Amino acid sequence: MEQLWDAETARRYDTPGTGMFAPEVLGPTVDRLVALADGGRALELAIGTGRVAVPLRERGVPVTGIELSPHMVEQLRTKVDEDTIPVVLGDMATATAPGEFSLVYLVFNTIANLLTQEEQVACFRNAARHLVPGGRFVIELWVPELRKLPPGVGATVWLNEPGYIGLDTYDVLHQRVVSHHFRFDDSRKAELGRTPHRYIWPSELDLMAQLAGFVLESRDADWSGEEFTADSRSHVSVYRRD
């Protein structure tokens, strides 16, 4: 997985003001995390280039990160130094950061980057190890779109816009999906990137939480607190450590 987040990917990752960096996306995320931290320290698993951590730190929440890719951390260091946001290089399922935290969070579907159920369960247990009693673990995750797959069809187009097509291919036997990212212009050339994931149903996620000593505190459709329904495409789930 580390090779997916190379220097070129890290360099192109940030899109200030647009996409997942848009104020209407990032603002509610940071607002909710500030409230959930409740005056304590926060740990971000897979901190990346600091999309969420930097504005969260600016809001007064002490943030530490764990990150697998040194290239992503190098990009983060163009924004803040190690004293401001310390980062431990390592796998989010096993690496440990010093101290205890009132909040651990994992955003933008990143738990699905762990490609086995065992690794995903280990990630929950790692989060629990870092939390004080009563601390919270927050996960933002998409809902598998298998209802869009008629018999015999193994792929869905999830985004089609000028210069970009996003397509997912499914292996429903092993709960695997590969996202294909096609970027193109008016020439005859296109660029393709692929990212593998293991998708998780909300009920399976809840069982992973139970195995790690968590209880589900809330589940919303987004960071603003919209109701989660059968038609929701993603969710923000908050688990509390017993």
Automatic annotation (TrEMBL):
Do you know which InterPro entries this protein is assigned to? Methyltransf_25, SAM-dependent_MTases_sf
Q: Which keywords accompany this UniProt record? A: Methyltransferase, Transferase
Which top-rank group of organisms is this from?
Answer: Bacteria
Pfam family of this protein, just one?
Methyltransf_25
What GO molecular functions are on record for this protein?
Answer: methyltransferase activity
GO BP terms = methylation
Residue intervals of the Methyltransferase domain: 43-135
The keyword Lyase belongs to this UniProt entry's keyword annotation: no
Name listed for the protein in its UniProt record: SAM-dependent methyltransferase
